[in-house]
Amino acid sequence: MSPNTQDEKAREQLIDLAAEFYDQFAGGEIPEMKLPTRTKSNIVFDEDSNVWVYGDRTSTRSANSVRGARKLLKAVYTIDFLAKQLDEDRSSTLRELYYLSESWDNEEAQFSDQDESNQLVEDLEIVSKVTREDFHMRPEESGATLMGPLELREQTRRGEREIHCQKDVGEGGYQIPNNPDTIEFLDHDIDFVLCVETGGMRDRLVENGFDEEYNVLVVHLKGQPARATRRITKRLHDELDLPVVVFTDGDPWSYRIYGSVAYGSIKSAHLSEYLATPEAEYVGIRPQDIVDYDLPTDPLADSDINALESELTDPRFQSEFWKEQIELQLDIGKKAEQQALASRGLDFVTDTYLPERLSDMGVI
């Protein structure tokens, strides 16, 4: 679907939503908007698709109370703003939407804080089945990048441009745009996709030429990955049939980074099938690596221990591998960063650690 067609579809579905409120009014009904209940207890792990999805419980935003009426008023003003934005082929950030509401002529429609405006945009995504990227809503820049043998065509405000993600970029790589569905994959020599948590490790891999030696596309997750990063990773897997592996620090928060790439996150459960790559595999750092390589470590904090214990009951971490690794980490009481591999030399990660691990996994 072309960008213009996507814009038209997004605008139509927003207008349809506003028209539904009008029809309810005209029919003598109290306007309302039904949504999945957005609580942790209503988010379930779908065993068939291996992603987080909303359960059957719903909540109703109804104008039969002052609080409910305010929420619907804010929704109507936001729909009007988004429809005009699409008409004008403009875009804005989630932060700008919050401040823009200060100029709306009805004070009751203005947002009290950015959390409220962010949540409303998510509500509109769920009800209209259109992503915020297709509303032309941007988060603050994530700065996540690609580096590797991929040639693509990107739609920009200055027209199309073709980019090779090694030959046409500097050491920083190609920055993933807010809406990666505007990218067309033209050609590639990629054997697998390696998602890397930290900038330091990403830079080490690129400096050592790992992307060139192994025909790998290095995706810098930049910590907890943004939606655009997860979306392009899924597209690379689904459309180019590429294996995806995730390389993070060895702590419970990093395991959740892997979980969000592979299985989706609770916060974006309504988009899991659009963002998650259930086939993604975890390459490290593993608690067993801390023992085997005698890596420099930090002790587990109480919050780390609580997070690990929570992961033992998390559907995303129920395999024998994860149970063994988490229990081992709780036993040794230690965590380690990716860069701890440098204790064995700057080339250890690219000459030994990753080649051996990826070979064992059948990736190379």
Automatic annotation (TrEMBL):
Residues 70-136 form the Spo11/DNA topoisomerase VI subunit A N-terminal domain. It is an enzyme of class 5 (isomerase). InterPro entries: Spo11/TopoVI_A, Spo11/TopoVI_A_N, Spo11/TopoVI_A_sf, Topo_VI_alpha, TopoVI_A, TOPRIM_Topo6A/Spo11, WH-like_DNA-bd_sf. Residues 140-189 form the Type II DNA topoisomerase VI subunit A all-beta domain. It comes from the Archaea. Its cofactor is Mg(2+). It catalyses: ATP-dependent breakage, passage and rejoining of double-stranded DNA. Gene3D superfamilies: 3.40.1360.10, Winged helix-like DNA-binding domain superfamily/Winged helix DNA-binding domain (1.10.10.10). The active site is at Y99. Residues 192-358 form the Topoisomerase 6 subunit A/Spo11 TOPRIM domain. The keyword DNA-binding applies. Its EC number is 5.6.2.2. CDD domains: TOPRIM_TopoIIB_SPO (cd00223). One of its GO terms (biological process) is DNA replication. The keyword Magnesium applies. GO terms for cellular component: chromosome. Keywords: ATP-binding, DNA-binding, Isomerase, Magnesium, Metal-binding, Nucleotide-binding, Topoisomerase. NCBIfam families: PRK04342.1-1. Homodimer. Heterotetramer of two Top6A and two Top6B chains. Belongs to the TOP6A family. Relaxes both positive and negative superturns and exhibits a strong decatenase activity. This is Type 2 DNA topoisomerase 6 subunit A. The gene is top6A.
